[in-house]
Every structure is written in C-alpha cells, then in structure tokens.
Design goal:
It contains ten helices and eight strands. It has 288 residues and is α/β, with parallel strands linked by helices. It is globular, with a radius of gyration of 18 Å.
C-alpha cells in the first residue's frame, strides 16, 4: 500500500474509531469530535474509503461533529453478509448508524455512498436532518452521447512506478477533470483505496437505486455534480430532470470545471457549499 502524506496520517491519528458489526467482521467509523455540534456522517465512493474526504474533514470538523464510515468490503471494513450485494451493504450501514446515533444527523455522500444513502432514506427518515449527494450514479440507464474511457487494469509484474502511472491515468479518466490537479496525494489515496477494495459497486451504477430511494422522501436533499463528472458527462441536465421529477424540491447544482471527485478536486468550493447547506438545509427547485 502506498505511503500516505503526513497530514493525512495525523488526521487519521486524531480520530476516535467506533466499531459496528458487519458480516463476519466489523465496520470502522472514524470520529473527529466537536462536542455539542451537529453530527455529520460522510459516506465515501466505490473502491474507496474515508480517504475520499481528506480535503474536507479539516474544514467540516471546525463546525461539526464529523464521522466517516468505511463502507462494507471497502477500506478497513469487513465484507457484508452477501458479497457485493447492495441490500446487504445498506443493511450493515444502517445497523452501524442506528447503533451509533440516538439523535438526528446529516449525511454527506459521494458516488457509491450516495446509493447506500438513498437506500436508507425512507427507513431512517426520523434520524436524517439532511442529505447531500455528490456525483450520484444509479439514476437509470440514461442515454449518453459520449462514453468514458475504460479504466486501465493493473496486472501482475508491474513495477511500482507503472502501477502509480496507471492510477494517475485512471484518476484522469474517472475522478478528476483537470490533470494538473492530480497530485501525488490523490495517486496515493487511489492506490491505497483500490488495493483494499473487495466490494464491487460498478454493476449498480446503471440501475435506479438512488432515484428509487429518494422518491417520495421528505428529508432536505441537495444533489451536486462537477460539470465534467466523467460517468455522467455530458448529459448532466438529464440528471437534473430525473432528480426534479423524483423530488421536485431538490436542490441541484453543477460546479464548473470539475469532475467526479469534486470534493477533492475543488475542496474550497465544495467545503463552502457543503457547510452552507449543513447550516441551512432547505430544499428548493432552482430550474435554471
């Protein structure tokens, strides 16, 4: 596993870890305590871990009581009861949340974490203060005018430099729009995350779990994408329409010049929008 920068190691050491059952093992929930502040739970993306939020936790913890879960079969979490099954993963995540919290909290999710969150929204409505979905998939098999370049597979026998070069290229194809923003830390995080990933979330990306999950819910909902989100580009307006059909009060925004891993590529913009939302989570319908 690629060595992580010192600032991330310090951030990791500052967290208290809570554990919840998951399959034959357990889920870690890292906690940066801010006593008395509102609780915010972060759910990362596919083939990821809490490391997807390293550029956001420092800003969020100044105002909020922050928790970051490693989802089943990813990061340091055990696999759920049924391997790579969305229902089983969502069930384990719900058990962890209900074990940890007896009062309401906010959820900020990314990619695969959006799918897990949406699957829980109806059943956990009384515990959810707001939901923010970043780069969600699973909104239906929408027609696309362009196809994302396939990710490059790592093969045995590759040198360390070759592996890192593959990770950097894959970040450009999937995660980060501007290549100049792919730094050594992003590559190290990608290598750490993908080397530990066992749960396969891509098969769910073309389904409807997110839209099915949010439809009919009342929890304030904010959906945000980078306007060059590779899995969704260039048909972001189709996604706006799908979300507004399912939840007419949804707040839907695009961030210019950004890709899928929005919160890493443009952390200052993301952190500002996220903090503003968490402080005033009022759904709306900005049709523009």
């Amino acid at each position: 596993m690629e060595a992580l920068p010192e600032d991330i190691l310090v951030l990791q050491k500052e967290a208290v870890i809570h554990w919840a059952p998951c399959g034959e093992g357990r889920i870690p929930i890292r906690h940066w305590e801010n006593a008395g502040a509102e609780k915010v739970v972060l759910l990362h993306g596919g083939s990821g871990s809490w490391l997807h939020w390293t550029r956001n936790i420092p800003a969020l913890r100044e105002q909020f009581d922050v928790y970051a879960i490693d989802l089943p079969g990813l990061g340091d979490a055990s696999m759920c009861e049924v391997e790579s099954d969305a229902v089983s993963a969502a069930r384990a995540t719900r058990v962890a949340l209900e074990q940890l919290f007896d009062s309401a909290f906010h959820v900020v999710a990314f990619s695969w974490g959006c799918t897990v969150t949406a699957m829980l929204m109806k059943d956990m409505a009384t515990l959810l203060k707001s939901v923010m979905l970043t780069g969600p998939a699973a909104v239906g098999d929408l027609p696309r005018r362009l196809t994302m370049k396939p990710l490059i597979k790592r093969v045995s026998g590759m040198s360390r430099d070759e592996v890192l070069a593959v990770q950097k290229e894959n970040l450009a194809r999937l995660m980060i729009y501007q290549r100049s923003r792919i730094d050594d830390t992003a590559v190290a995080i990608q290598q750490s995350n993908t080397s530990r990933a066992r749960f396969r979330s891509p098969p769910y990306a073309r389904g409807t779990l997110v839209i099915d999950g949010v439809r009919g819910t009342k929890t304030p909902l904010f959906v945000i994408y980078g306007d060059h989100d590779a899995p969704a580009y260039p048909d972001l307006e189709a996604r706006r329409e799908v979300f507004q059909s399912a939840r007419p009060d949804v707040r839907f925004e695009l961030v210019a010049d950004a890709g899928h891993w929005l919160q890493y590529e443009m952390p200052d913009v993301f952190n500002q929008k996220c903090i503003e939302w968490l402080n005033n989570p009022v759904s709306q319908n900005p049709r523009r």
